[in-house]
Amino acid sequence: MLRRLGSAVRGASRRFQPLPSCKKLYSSESEDARARPPKLLVVQPRVRPEKLLQAKLNEALCLANSLEDQRDGYFHTDFFDKPLPPHVLVQNRVPRADSYFGHGTVDNIKCHVNAAAESEDEVDAVFVNAILSGVQQRNLEASRAWGKPVLDRVGLIIEIFNAHAFTKEAKLQAELAALSYKKTRLVRARGPDGRYTFGASGEAEVVSARGRGSGGQGFMSGAGETELQLQRRRIIERRNYLLSQIEEVRRTRALQRAGRKRSGGSSGQGLATIAVVGYTNAGKSTLVSRLSNSDLFSDCRLFATVDPRVRSVVLPSGKKVLFSDTVGFISDLPVQLVEAFHATLEEVVEADLLLHVVDSSAPNLDEHRTTVLQVLRQIGVSDEKLQNMIEVWNKIDMEEECMDVDEYLDDKEKDGFNLEDGVKSELLAESEGTEEVDCEALEEKEDDSDGWLYSDDLVDECKFCSPSTVADQQNESFEKHDGVEKDRSIEQSGPHVKTSAITGVGLQELLELIDKKLRVQNKKGAQAVERSIYDRKWRPSHNQESGIAVEQ
Ligand SMILES: Nc1nc2c(ncn2[C@@H]2O[C@H](COP(=O)(O)OP(=O)(O)OP(=O)(O)O)[C@@H](O)[C@H]2O)c(=O)[nH]1
Ligand SMILES: [Mg+2]
């Protein structure tokens, strides 16, 4: 499915600055090694149903291939020229506290890591598409397990943000998120010699003269601080510095917002802002670019936009509005990122109107919608704004492709090709209690899935053809994501407009709808002001002589 997305739009020239957070992913620190993105082995725990598994695997592969530093404002490799990252599907029973996976699965994955190294296709790190605790991560990184840096979902998303951040604001926020994440990962583990060690490469615990009790006074004042304490202190110091810098950014943004509210051109009213939100890769930047005739950076890599941008658009009524293109959301969005990107996300909370862009070709579209609504609530968007939000189903041009794929698959099926074989061939049949693994047999396994996986939805049905079916299915899936009491009417509403940011279909309709919504909103606002004026009590002034009434 993803192979068929449009080509990337290149952004303006930007200066490349490698970020230190990605360093540990590279096995070598040479310039050559730094020039290429890290190679990850993707480990996808099995989830049900099969459709969801395919969507999760697709997303995991996209995440793995999205980790690449930008140079001069764009990525040097075309996303679809990149080879499919090596990947393994594994059974996912109750996660173990120490290593997340059972011993059999850990050994299986180790075999894949070793096999890659022997075929001179060594991976730099292992990406587990799940959320790991610090201890689980450290144990899996240990030499007796995989002997490679391990990234969980949260860690990889934060690395991608770091790699894609370009402006000072985005860099500060991405670093803050990385620090908050790192702080929870500082764990001590027993090294091969039985002694406590610290850090990914197992540095020995050191005692610094500075720190608790010692104040740099040596043995007279106590044992000083351990490496763990030292690292914690450094993180806290850096974190405080970043927080103070971000606070400045917030203040600047607030001033800019206030300025925009004041300046309204000929109308004399403030410029209305429309925040464009949605799941990552839904087509937000492409849509804003198309509406504003500009060239915002868009790409098939996930989190192509980390630096928010504002563009002005003239509505059919002649009213000028501002569209704010923001960072995309994702399921299990790291809480550290939401907190760190508070300054950026404030634009969304403060916007006059929200535009929720949904990728209508996504197989798990309902999960995407729920995720976006959850994040919007998390950052403090009011229910009123959510009720008023416009939902845009983008990429409807893929409807035709959907038809084409149907025909293509029909032909393939006639030729005896089974699409799901590609996925299942990778599944490791880990039986309960399996301890020994036949590595040779594993090496013989071939990856039948030549290229990106197609989603079941493209095979079974075409969502564009029956949006009502999708809405019907949503009831069921929203139950699964429960936990927070929600206004279900918001979640059950279907698309207001269907667009294609590439072909331009539906864009005029969208602008007219925005115009209408803003008009209604202004009217309501004006009525509220009027009411508040009439509601005021007027009393005669104490100064009877002047005869002028003053407002109390
Ligand atoms: N076929 C098709 N592709 C689209 C459409 N809109 C966007 N795309 C493609 O989808 C990919 C992602 O688009 P972006 O605009 O970067 O998506 P985004 O929502 O801004 O993504 P993030 O910034 O990563 O959150 C790009 O390759 C676009 O060319 C559309 O209407 N139809
Ligand atoms: Mg974008």
UniProtKB/TrEMBL annotation:
Keywords: GTP-binding, Magnesium, Metal-binding, Nucleotide-binding. Residues 272-522 form the Hflx-type G domain. It holds the Pfam family MMR_HSR1. One of its GO terms (cellular component) is cytoplasm. Residues 477-490 have a biased composition (Basic and acidic residues). It comes from the Eukaryota. GO terms for molecular function: GTP binding; metal ion binding; ribosome binding. Residues 470-497, 524-552 are annotated as: Disordered. PROSITE patterns: G_HFLX (PS51705). PANTHER family: GTP-BINDING PROTEIN HFLX, GTPASE HFLX. This is Hflx-type G domain-containing protein. It comes from Sphenostylis stenocarpa. The lineage of its organism: Eukaryota, Viridiplantae, Streptophyta, Embryophyta, Tracheophyta.
